[in-house]
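User: I'm curious whether this sequence folds into something compact or stays loose and floppy. Could you predict its structure so I can see for myself?
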Amino acid sequence: MQLKPVVTVEHIGSDEFRKEFYEPGIPVVIKNLSKNWPAYTKWNWEYFKQLVGEKKVPLYNNIKSDAYTPINSADDYKTFGEYIDMISKGPAGWRIFLFNIFDHAPQLTHDFTWPEDLMKGFVKKYPMLFVGGKTSITHMHFDIDMSHILHTQFTGKKRVLLFPFSEQYKLYRKPFEVLSLADFSNYYEKNGNPDYKQFPALKLANGYDLTLDHGDTLFMPAGYWHHMEYLDSGFAMSLRAMQPSIGGKLRGAWNLFGMRSIDTVMKKTVPQWWYEKKKKKVFENAEKVIKSA
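Assistant: Here's the prediction. I'll summarize afterward.
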């Protein structure tokens, strides 16, 4: 992989942000965007336990999906309080996904400000909190609705791989899915993945490598591939904004209601045949990329 650091700024004005990053679709880390939010100092494990400690939450482990894995199917359930206690004791490869804490504690929405000076189109009904224990992994994917994302890290550090959507075939994208077939787990370790022997097109992929710390806000343009590994137990919040163009909105709608529906039906009816068919196409696409390089 050909990786470079993401541009990092302390502050940024709206005109500079739109010209240099939003319009060309380039990621940037803004260090101080969240530092005036009450959430910056107010949000912590004990505060969340007080608010939603008794709520049952779906948990996901680090195992990559296969032919029989239902879409967004949880691997376990615990109360939020039990989960926080577990990940506070040490490494725990479990994360929470698709639990909207703001539905259960709407007062949390008063602890941050929607940065509408930077971009419009925020989906204010769905700010999302993402929580993970140390060593937990969010495998390489792009967000299905093709929204722009402002991803703010709070407690803990997280290492992130980013790639433009156009790198999809080098990343071995599975057809009708938002996931990569390749495993990027522990990619930054000397002998870690990815497996270039099995996935040689990865050597051609151009992307970014970065680490997010408390208060850092990452702008991820629509469609960007991302792989995240929790170096510490921690949590982050994503604010989503729809693309302004009709074409961007339509691509997101197709992914949500067309592509995903087809994949779900096929996984339920002929899972192994469907998996092998998609796998074959993955390597055909990668081979074309290699030959054209």
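Summary: The two ends are 14 Å apart (CA to CA). The helical segments are 14-22, 39-42, 45-52, 80-88, 101-104, 246-269, 271-292.
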